[in-house]
Amino acid sequence: MRKFTSVIKVKGFAVHHSRRLSETTLEKTQIASIFFAEVARVFLFITVLVRESFSRDFELREFFRQCFQIGYKTLPLVSVTGAIMGLVLTIQSRPVLVDFGAVSWLPGMVSVSLIKEMGPVITALICAGKIGSGMGAELGSMKVTEQIEAMEVSSINPMRFLVVTRVAAATLMIPLLILYADALGILGSWAGANIKGSVSFVLFFSQAFSPVDFIDFLPAVLKSFFFGAVIGLVGCYKGYNAGRGTESVGVAANSAVVMASLLVIIIDLIAVQITDMLLL
Amino acid sequence: MKTKQTETFDKVHYKTKNNEPVIEITNLRKSFNNQEVLKDVSLKLFDGENLVVLGKSGSGKSVLIKCIVRLLNPDGGTISVFDENVMALQRNELNELRKKIGFLFQSGALYDSMTVKQNLEFPLRRIRKDLSEKDIKEKIAEVLENVGLPDAQNKMPSQLSGGMRKRISLARTIVVDPLIMLYDEPTTGLDPATSDEISLLINDVQTKYKTSSIIITHDIACARANANRIVLLLDGAIYKEGSLETFEHSTDPEIKSFFR
């Protein structure tokens, strides 16, 4: 009897674990299939985007409207962020440099860190928040209210009108915003240098640009084009592929910001590695 | 003065005079996540007629007309519009066909970022490239006059009421002179008076623009005002097809639940 009971127990144990194993495998397979389906959708989206970007009927008017929306309307936010970035960096770094008697290095140090790293990354993150979420929410609400379908049935290509123009405008305008933020950052730094000390505008700028070569601008400007493209792409992708309910508009906007910010950081890491390899 | 019955007879008679189907759907099937929404639906839309597709919410009415313009791809069956197999069309061929079809969305689907005038210009400039600036202006003024909103050109969609949005949406659809109109719940969410106005407008569109229309609705007043023929869709399949009279006098409980 005891032998019989133990056989039943072993059998029960085996059945239970094999069931759990099959459930876990199924779950993992489903997760993998969802992941690969998403990857396929992203590639398809990019393929269509590239194809439509080189079509004859480029929506020039909408492109300029988007440049205005992205560039001009983000200017106040980028101005404040850029100026504060330079000011804070100067105020924080000054005491350390004073201790080493290296205050004259302050303008150069601030300008190099602003141009090479802080300006592009922080401005891109600000843009991911404002522009990426804006695109995600706008296209998401257009999807929910059937405006994208209305374009399709009117024989108007929504990819060409909505996505190509936005991604192109973001790719062009975000590098310009980054350069603008760099300039205001250096101005903010000059203001910061004059809070505790006194330095003339001409002297500050000659010291700020003495350690900076054209080659320092190049990788920063190049990566900022990638930042712009990725912010536009992610914002449009998330909005364009939003679900049906109103809740999906918020989800699209939110996930656009998160994904775009993450990709900005990853692109920055890759760009730094490549620059390091090429310049060493 | 024609009686209502004579008018209905004329509408049915109109259909029989033009017995060429402009849309022919055969055994259409569509599922979402293993749930069958359309089950072997077959129907024809004849030249110049108003076909009303009645059905409860979730019976697959909107899916049916979205399949016609290939906003949704069916799982099986064929859809032929002007003798062209919609499923076999390439992207540019499909776009050419879509230019002949007007689609009035349930929500209106007006472009929020554009004024009423820009909403109308948007498809017009892209579809009717032969028109001059003067023609475009005249065309926009004409359709706005036809929908009874001649002074709405510079308004934003957010400044319009539900009924006005439907009218402007209809104006945007007819501005490109479509041959077929697909109405997705044109009177949903409107008060009875505005619903009647929209129903009259649908009749006007048929008369003025000589369109053939499929009207998806569960609003019996709209069906009564516009139907040359009615198809009742029940759980994704065609339950009954016939004239308005047939439906009005039917003793079938499923039909009577609509025509009370």
UniProtKB/TrEMBL annotation, chain A:
InterPro entries: Permease_MalE (IPR030802). It comes from the Bacteria. The keyword Transmembrane helix applies. Keywords: Membrane, Transmembrane, Transmembrane helix. The chain crosses the membrane at residues 70-89, 121-140, 161-181, 217-240, 252-272. This is ABC transporter permease. GO terms for molecular function: phospholipid transporter activity. One of its GO terms (cellular component) is ATP-binding cassette (ABC) transporter complex. PANTHER family: ABC TRANSPORTER PERMEASE PROTEIN-RELATED (PTHR30188). Pfam families: MlaE. It comes from Prolixibacter bellariivorans.
Automatic annotation (TrEMBL), chain B:
InterPro entries: AAA+_ATPase (IPR003593), ABC_transporter-like_ATP-bd (IPR003439), ABC_transporter-like_CS (IPR017871), P-loop_NTPase (IPR027417). SMART domains: AAA (SM00382). SUPFAM superfamilies: P-loop containing nucleoside triphosphate hydrolases (SSF52540). Residues 23-260 form the ABC transporter domain. Keywords: ATP-binding, Nucleotide-binding, Transport. The keyword Protein biosynthesis does not apply. The lineage of its organism: Bacteria, Pseudomonadati, Bacteroidota, Bacteroidia, Marinilabiliales. GO terms for molecular function: ATP binding; ATP hydrolysis activity. This is ABC transporter ATP-binding protein.
